[in-house]
């Protein structure tokens, strides 16, 4: 049984590998993105030493790390799920003795591992060579970071699953998926670190799951948090992961009741 | 609904000893499902990779898997397809792989949703032969929905016809034919030109209908009560004949007739026009819209498991539309 789920990770990984040419270009796109933000922030900083508690170096590292973390947690499960619901192939999956959402999650993980190895690692090396990215030397921080981006992956995937499952309830959830993507990029801190938001914005963000996706792990990794804060950040992630399980289960239950197959 | 995908809005359902939607993961271990219109194989990976994945999904032992796979590869001649990615298979090749995939865990019930749709005649025949064989050898119960009545004629011992969620026929195929079939047709090709009144005179006193094609051919319609040989003897004795064809009542005609008369609610113009005006969503064995198919909750475990069965058509106005569409 569990072997089956592992198999889904492996096969997704191999599938991604089969289409790897797509991803060579992806590495360049990510490098360009990091570069653009790097120069943008440099211009914003001007002569200022620190902004919102970030030094220029920390900011550069933050940008690079955020994008690389994004490479790992990002996936298109929302689109996959909603497509499978709309074309009815979700029905095929339901005739198998496996949990559909678990399978999806595993496939997303296979994709994440692929990007981590063939995308994040070379991209990070490239970014370190090109820009002033300073990576921490403390192994503990690396370990914590990987634990945290694992939770980033889980939380982001949960949001994707929720968005995707909306296809059961509305004919077309395209707009919803786009909105979710923009929200995640903006509010998770990929585009602008949460520390740059006004105070009310930060307070508001504390109540949303998005910062747990990028901002918290990247902050920890760039060394902006004390040990206590680090554990606190991890706890927030775990909390959100647990909380998000509830709507998914509820939604999946009611979706089973209203499963109808569009177009056949 | 029978496969556990849909949750019924009312009624009871029990298949193979399970309530499908409640004990889904346990229940689906014992069934195989093939949808003619969508693939259950993974599009991007090799066929054999899909099979291996399914082995793990169903927890089939390595040895059982090998034995079953070898057998399936041989009977469905999949040998050279195994290492190809699914996206590079033709529809017929893919369907053979789908069948194999659905049988790898040796299910006791096989659900087929229009398994021969869009296939050429050779592949259709192969698939029918294969289905008959696994039904015979493994005792797998086969439940299929189809709009291709030749499938039914070739495979089924029990036919269930659904119309708008109601069962309008449930019984054997032969019974269906004798109860609903009204007669046979004989097509003559004559050596000399014939005239209609001459032919009518030959069968004077019999309740048959002649229709003349061109000068040399004519068709006679003989109701069931009259023996075909009787008609033949009258004609053959007096005319010079170069060819005779006897056409049994077409199952398609019968089914069309049943849908026309058996369901008062179905408007005739829908049947004749072939437009799917009433049925929005299409049918699996149980029909896909849960609220429209309350009568399908029949218990499945009272069926003898060595019988092949068929729900002839699942949806209200579509079946005849499809039947007509299959005739060029």
From TrEMBL, chain A:
Any idea which UniProt keywords this protein has?
A: Membrane, Transmembrane, Transmembrane helix
Segments traversing the membrane: 21-40, 52-73, 112-131, 143-170, 182-200, 231-252
Q: Quote the Pfam families the UniProt record gives.
A: ABC2_membrane_6
Q: Which InterPro entries match?
A: ABC-2_transporter-like
Keyword Membrane carried by entry:
yes
The answer to keyword Membrane applying to this record is: yes
This one is known as ABC-2 family transporter protein
Species the sequence originates in: Cohnella rhizosphaerae
Q: What is the lineage of its organism?
A: Bacteria, Bacillati, Bacillota, Bacilli, Bacillales
């Amino acid at each position: 049984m569990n072997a089956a789920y592992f198999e889904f990770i492996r096969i997704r990984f191999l599938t991604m590998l089969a289409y790897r040419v797509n991803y060579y270009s992806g590495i360049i796109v990510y490098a360009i993105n990091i570069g653009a933000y790097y120069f943008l922030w440099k211009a914003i900083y001007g002569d200022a030493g620190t902004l919102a508690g970030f030094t220029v170096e920390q900011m550069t590292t933050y940008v690079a790390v955020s994008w690389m973390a994004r490479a790992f947690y990002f996936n298109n499960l929302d689109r996959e799920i909603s497509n499978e619901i709309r074309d009815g192939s979700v029905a095929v999956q339901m005739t198998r003795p496996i949990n559909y959402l678990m399978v999806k999650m595993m496939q997303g993980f296979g994709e994440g591992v692929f990007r981590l190895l063939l995308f994040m690692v070379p991209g990070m090396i490239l970014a370190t060579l090109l820009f002033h990215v300073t990576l921490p030397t403390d192994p503990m921080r690396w370990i914590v970071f990987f634990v945290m981006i694992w939770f980033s992956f889980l939380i982001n995937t949960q949001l994707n699953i929720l968005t995707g499952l909306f296809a059961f309830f509305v004919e077309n959830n395209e707009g919803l998926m786009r909105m979710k993507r923009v929200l995640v990029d903006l509010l998770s801190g990929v585009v602008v670190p949460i520390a740059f938001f006004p105070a009310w914005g930060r307070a508001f963000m504390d109540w949303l799951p998005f910062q747990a996706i990028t901002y918290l792990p990247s902050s920890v990794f760039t060394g902006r948090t004390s040990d206590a804060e680090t554990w606190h950040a991890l706890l927030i992630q775990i909390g959100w992961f647990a909380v998000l399980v509830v709507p998914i289960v509820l939604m999946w239950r009611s979706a089973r009741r209203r499963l109808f197959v569009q177009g056949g | 609904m029978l496969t556990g995908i849909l949750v019924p809005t009312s009624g009871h359902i029990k298949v193979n000893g399970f309530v499908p939607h409640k004990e889904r993961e346990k229940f689906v271990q014992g069934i195989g499902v093939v949808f003619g219109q969508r693939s259950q194989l993974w599009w991007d990976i090799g066929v054999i990779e899909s099979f291996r994945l399914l082995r793990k999904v169903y927890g089939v032992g390595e040895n059982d898997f090998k034995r079953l796979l070898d057998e399936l590869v041989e009977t469905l001649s999949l040998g050279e397809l195994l290492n190809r990615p699914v996206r590079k298979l033709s529809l017929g090749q893919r369907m053979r792989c789908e069948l194999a995939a659905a049988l790898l865990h040796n299910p006791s019930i096989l659900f087929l949703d229009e398994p021969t749709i869009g296939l050429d005649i050779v592949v259709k025949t192969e698939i029918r032969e294969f289905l008959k064989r696994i039904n015979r050898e493994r005792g797998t119960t086969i439940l299929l929905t189809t709009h291709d009545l030749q499938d039914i004629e070739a495979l089924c011992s029990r036919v269930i016809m659904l119309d708008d969620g109601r069962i309008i026929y449930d019984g054997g195929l032969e019974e269906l034919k004798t109860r609903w079939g009204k007669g046979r047709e004989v097509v003559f090709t004559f050596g000399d030109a014939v005239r209609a009144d001459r032919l009518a005179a030959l069968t004077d006193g019999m309740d048959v209908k002649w229709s003349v094609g061109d000068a040399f051919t004519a068709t006679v319609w003989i109701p069931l009560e009259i023996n075909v040989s009787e008609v033949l003897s009258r004609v053959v004795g007096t005319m010079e004949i170069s060819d005779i064809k006897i056409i049994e009542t077409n199952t398609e005609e019968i089914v069309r007739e049943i849908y026309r008369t058996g369901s008062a609610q179905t408007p005739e113009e829908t049947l004749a026009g072939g437009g799917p005006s009433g049925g929005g969503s299409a049918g699996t064995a149980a029909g896909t819209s849960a609220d429209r198919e309350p009568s399908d909750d029949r218990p499945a475990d009272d069926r003898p498991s060595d019988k092949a069965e068929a729900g002839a058509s699942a949806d209200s106005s579509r079946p005849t539309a499809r039947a007509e569409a299959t005739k060029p």
